[in-house]
Design brief:
The complex is a heterodimer of chains A (107) and B (121). Chain A has 107 residues and is mainly beta. Chain A has strands at 9-12, 18-23, 33-37, 44-47, 61-66, 69-74, 83-91, 95-98, 102-106. In chain A, the strands form two sheets. In chain A, strands 1, 3, 4, 7, 8 and 9 form a six-stranded mixed beta sheet that branches. Chain A has a three-stranded antiparallel beta sheet with strand order 2-6-5, with no helix packed on it. In chain A, strand 7 (83-91) and strand 8 form a beta hairpin. Chain A starts with 8 loop residues before the first strand and ends with a strand. The mean pLDDT of chain A is 96. Chain B is an all-beta fold and 121 residues long. Chain B contains no helices and eleven strands. Chain B has strands spanning 3-7, 10-12, 18-25, 34-39, 45-51, 60-62, 70-75, 80-85, 94-101, 108-111, 115-119. The chains are: A mainly beta (107), B mainly beta (121). Chains A and B meet through strand 3, strand 7 and strand 8 of A and strand 5 and strand 10 of B.
Chain lengths: 107, 121
């Protein structure tokens, strides 16, 4: 089965840039999607197909994907960005797969 | 406005069955594939399975952890997706989310609020 690896936590000061990684074997050949989940709420799609944003998602959220690592970048981080973030791909052996999630803390 | 509302969760004993429903509104339900994703208490997200639209055969796919025990179906006339869960195990305890699949890719663009299923004796 295909495994996606995310750091358990990332911390960043307000106004700085947060980068959350998602590692997987040759993940650069796959389309990566990212979700934001705040406590007690359902996840929200923030980036799909590596770098596209759904309508209503701020431009501060961007994504990239190459080699064995995909990255979600959040620029000018705000207190309201504090949440868990999950990456997700489709793989022929596992179908849809999620990473373990990363807790973003805004200091 | 797209809305997905899950229902049917609750407390159930191991080995028993439960059926969840996902009532959709705000879009042409029959045009979209629908998925179920679950989240055990304090844990991450786990894809459960999905059902394609009738245009793509209405077929289903499941995660290995639920294959043979869970069945997804849909009633396009009522805009409802179902998750039939049989032979439930304690490890099936989770919040179950209904999601809409983006047409052109395998991401989930809308999620319901979730319904809690607790499997315990």
């Amino acid at each position: 089965s295909y495994v996606l690896t995310q750091p358990p936590s990332v911390s960043v000061a307000p106004g700085q840039t947060a980068r959350i990684t998602c590692g997987g074997n040759n993940i650069g050949s796959k389309s990566v999607h990212w979700y934001q989940q705040k406590p007690g709420q359902a996840p929200v799609l923030v980036v799909y197909d590596d770098s596209d944003r759904p309508s209503g998602i701020p431009e501060r959220f961007s994504g990239s994907n190459s080699g064995n690592t995909a990255t979600l970048t959040i620029s000018r981080v705000e207190a309201g960005d504090e949440a868990d973030y999950y990456c997700q791909v489709w793989d022929s052996s596992s179908d849809r797969v999620f990473g373990g999630g990363t807790k973003l803390t805004v200091l | 406005e797209v809305q997905l509302v899950e229902s049917g969760g609750g407390l159930v004993q191991p080995g028993r069955s439960l059926r969840l429903s996902c009532t959709a509104s705000g879009f042409t339900f029959g045009d979209y594939a629908m998925s179920w994703v679950r989240q055990a208490p304090g844990k991450g997200l786990e894809w459960v399975g999905f059902i394609r639209s009738k245009a793509y055969g209405g077929t289903t796919e499941y995660a290995a952890s639920v294959k043979g025990r869970f069945t997804i179906s849909r009633d396009d006339s009522k805009s409802i997706a179902y998750l039939q869960m049989n032979s439930l195990k304690t490890e099936d305890t989770a919040v179950y989310y209904c999601t809409r699949d983006i047409e052109t890719t395998d991401a989930f663009d809308y999620w319901g609020q979730g319904t809690l299923v607790t499997v315990s004796s």
